[in-house]
């Protein structure tokens, strides 16, 4: 039996839904460890962060395939963006992004996209391109280390020495950096959808997309993360204190 494009789209939607459910469960447990902030919870915290990082890669990969198989994408769109090539995930997203901007602004393949785009859309394109490159490289690097059991110490390729760069990258991750990555890819997915399906909608709503993208950055900043930690720990301690006094 040959699966139709509609079947494939449905299957990718189901995969994404399953990943989101797992992601939400791990995020809930991670938040609980952050609230408690005791010795046992701190030990669990890094494991939850690693699982969440691992799932974030699956989340973004499934977002990609759900996007390219959505009903309004044509087979020509998929062929042009090399959906089935063996390109790494970051390259797939970047090709799709470039295709969207070319299609929306009527820039043919034989013209340099950077030179043909006007200043504002060019700046936005470059921002999204660089974000995809950086953040998916981070996910791929960390996912490979986690898959090989390097939960605490990360090594070089032949495991003869510690890899300080990867270790620093791993240690810098937290709930908000992971959440920021997911939320920004949601925006990028919406941007690409409208670039390919409805260029007029994208151009009309350009400022809204950009503001939403910037808002994610602000909401997931280190300062906001510290505020979040302070608030949830305060609430947990107050609730624990009230319960203790009623016993």
Describe the structure.
This protein has eleven helices and no strands. The chain is mainly α. It is globular. This is CAAX protease. It comes from Paenibacillus macquariensis.
List the helices and strands and how they pair.
Blueprint: H1 5-36, H2 39-68, H3 75-80, H4 89-105, H5 113-116, H6 119-147, H7 164-171, H8 175-197, H9 199-204, H10 206-219, H11 222-246
Helix pairs in contact: 1-2, 2-6, 2-8, 4-6, 4-8, 8-10
Question: What's the quick description here?
Answer:
It comes from Paenibacillus macquariensis. With 247 residues, the chain is mainly alpha-helical.
Rough outline: globular
The average pLDDT score comes to 90
Alpha-carbon Rg, integer: 21 Å
Termini separation: 64 Å
Helical amount: over 70%
Which consecutive residue ranges, at least 5 long each, have pLDDT under 50?
none
Query: How many β-strand runs?
Result: 0
Q: Which structural class do you get from the secondary structure elements?
A: mainly alpha
Order of helices and strands: HHHHHHHHHHH
SS field, number of helical segments = 11
Beta-strand share of residues? under 5%
Protein name: CAAX protease
Organism: Paenibacillus macquariensis
Question: Characteristics of this structure?
Answer:
mainly alpha; single chain; 247 residues; CAAX protease
């Amino acid at each position: 039996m040959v699966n139709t494009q509609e079947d494939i789209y449905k299957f990718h939607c189901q995969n994404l839904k399953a990943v989101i459910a797992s992601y939400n469960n791990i995020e809930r447990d991670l938040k609980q460890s952050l609230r408690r902030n005791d010795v046992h919870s701190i030990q669990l915290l890094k494991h939850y962060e690693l699982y969440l990082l691992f799932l974030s890669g699956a989340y973004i990969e499934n977002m990609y395939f759900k996007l390219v198989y959505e009903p309004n994408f044509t087979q020509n769109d998929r062929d042009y963006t090399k959906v089935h090539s063996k390109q790494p995930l970051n390259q797939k997203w970047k090709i799709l992004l470039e295709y969207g901007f070319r299609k929306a602004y009527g820039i043919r393949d034989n013209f340099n996209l950077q030179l043909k785009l006007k200043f504002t859309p060019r700046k936005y394109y470059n921002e999204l391109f660089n974000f995809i490159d950086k953040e998916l490289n981070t996910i791929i690097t960390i996912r490979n280390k986690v898959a090989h059991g390097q939960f605490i110490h990360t090594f070089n390729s032949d495991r003869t020495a510690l890899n300080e760069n990867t270790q620093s990258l791993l240690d810098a991750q937290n709930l908000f950096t992971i959440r920021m990555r997911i939320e920004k890819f949601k925006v990028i997915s919406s941007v690409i959808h409208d670039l390919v399906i409805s260029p007029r909608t994208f151009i009309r709503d350009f400022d809204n997309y950009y503001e939403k993208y910037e808002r994610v950055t602000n909401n997931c900043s280190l300062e906001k993360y510290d505020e979040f930690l302070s608030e949830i720990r305060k609430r947990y301690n107050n609730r624990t204190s009230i319960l203790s006094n009623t016993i």
